[in-house]
C-alpha cells in the first residue's frame, strides 16, 4: 500500500510536470505577445514624442526667425529716426541762424519779417520780435502758430 501511494505520487508528480511544461509554451506565447504589444505601444509613443519635439523645435525656430526680422526692422527704424533727428537739428540750426540774422537786420533798421516767397516767419502774426522781444506767443522758441510763406516751413509747438 505504501508502494502504491508512492507510485501514485510519482505519477501525479510526472503529470504535474507534463502539465507545467505544456502550459509553459502557452504562457510564454502570451508573455511574448504582451511584450510585442508593449514594444509597439512604446515605439509609437516614442515616434509621437519625436514628432511633437520636431514640431516644437520648428515653432521655436520660426519664433527666432520672426524675432530676428523684428529686430532688423527695429534697427532700420532707429536708423531712419536718427537720420530724421539729424535733419531736424540741421533745419533747426538753419532757422535759428535765420532768426538771428533777421533779428540783427531789424535792430539795424533793416527789413523785419520776411514776406517773400520761400521766406519763413515765426510766432503769432508773423513778427520775429514780438512783444517783449520774444519770438512769438506761447513762450515757444518757434511760436504756437508759425506760418510760412509760399514754399516755406512752419514749426509750431501747439502750445
Rg for CA atoms: 48 Å
Helical percent range? 55-70%
Task: Flag low-confidence runs.
Answer: 111-159
- The backbone outline, from C-alpha atoms, is rod-shaped
Largest sheet: none
GO cellular component, one term: extracellular space
Pfam families: Filament (PF00038)
Biased composition (Gly residues): 120-159
GO molecular function: structural constituent of skin epidermis
Description of the molecule:
The chain is an all-alpha fold and 159 residues long. The chain folds into 2 domains: 36-112; 113-152, no CATH class. The chain is 67% helix and 0% strand. The chain has 1 helix and no strands. The chain has one helix spanning 2-107. The radius of gyration is 48 Å and the shape is rod-shaped. The N and C termini lie far apart (128 Å). The relative contact order is 0.05. Mean pLDDT is 75; it is low at 111-159.
At a glance:
With 159 residues, this protein is mainly alpha-helical.
Amino acid at each position: 500500500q505504501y508502494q502504491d501511494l508512492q507510485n501514485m505520487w510519482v505519477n501525479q508528480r510526472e503529470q504535474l510536470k507534463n502539465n507545467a511544461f505544456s502550459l509553459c509554451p502557452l504562457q510564454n506565447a502570451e508573455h511574448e505577445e504582451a511584450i510585442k504589444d508593449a514594444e509597439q505601444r512604446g515605439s509609437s509613443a516614442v515616434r509621437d514624442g519625436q514628432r511633437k519635439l520636431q514640431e516644437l523645435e520648428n515653432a521655436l525656430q520660426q519664433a527666432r526667425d520672426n524675432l530676428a526680422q523684428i529686430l532688423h526692422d527695429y534697427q532700420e527704424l532707429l536708423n531712419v529716426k536718427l537720420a530724421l533727428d539729424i535733419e531736424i537739428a540741421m533745419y533747426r540750426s538753419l532757422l535759428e541762424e535765420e532768426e538771428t540774422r533777421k533779428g540783427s537786420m531789424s535792430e539795424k533798421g533793416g527789413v523785419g519779417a520776411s514776406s517773400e516767397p520761400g521766406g519763413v516767419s515765426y510766432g503769432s502774426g508773423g513778427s520775429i520780435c514780438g512783444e517783449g522781444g520774444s519770438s512769438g506767443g506761447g513762450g515757444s522758441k518757434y511760436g504756437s502758430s508759425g506760418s510760412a510763406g509760399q514754399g516755406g516751413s512752419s514749426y509750431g509747438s501747439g502750445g
